[in-house]
């Protein structure tokens, strides 16, 4: 039987604290969402000054990264390269800023961030994941 890692409450809080710290250090007003491997919401925080819509976008980016098992930017790039039919995929967060949490090759969750430039959103998500020492 094969075993795999899962996100614990402690993991979620550690990632959230690191992501919030990164955003605050850069003075970026964002929303941070963390989901498990099935895209179920485990954490959501809208920092002061972040637009209300960022809550929905951050959750969508995290969901896309978890269910798609890859960064949400991949889907954005596919669409930008002309494969507009991909817009019919059952995902709503096909924008950069959703990053999967990968441990031993398994996606165990994802972080989604919204509120600043897409590459900055992704940097915040990666800072959160780095707090776990994950891939």
UniProtKB/TrEMBL annotation:
Taxonomy, superkingdom: Bacteria
Entry-linked InterPro entries: GlcG_carb_metab_protein (IPR052517), PduO/GlcC-like (IPR005624), PduO/GlcC-like_sf (IPR038084)
PANTHER family: PROTEIN GLCG, SLR1406 PROTEIN
Name assigned to this protein: Uncharacterized conserved protein GlcG, DUF336 family
């Amino acid at each position: 039987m094969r075993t795999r890692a899962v996100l614990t409450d402690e993991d979620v809080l550690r990632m959230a604290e690191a992501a919030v710290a990164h955003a605050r250090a850069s003075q970026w007003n964002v929303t941070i969402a963390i989901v498990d491997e099935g895209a179920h919401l485990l954490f959501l925080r809208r920092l002061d000054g972040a637009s209300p819509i960022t809550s929905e976008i951050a959750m969508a980016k995290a969901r896309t990264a978890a269910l798609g098992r890859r960064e949400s930017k991949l889907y954005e790039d596919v669409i930008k390269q002309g494969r507009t039919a991909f817009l019919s995929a059952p995902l709503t967060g096909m924008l950069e800023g959703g990053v999967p949490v990968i441990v031993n090759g398994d996606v165990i969750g994802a972080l989604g961030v919204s509120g600043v430039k897409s590459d900055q959103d992704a940097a915040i998500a990666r800072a959160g994941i780095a707090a776990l020492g994950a891939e």
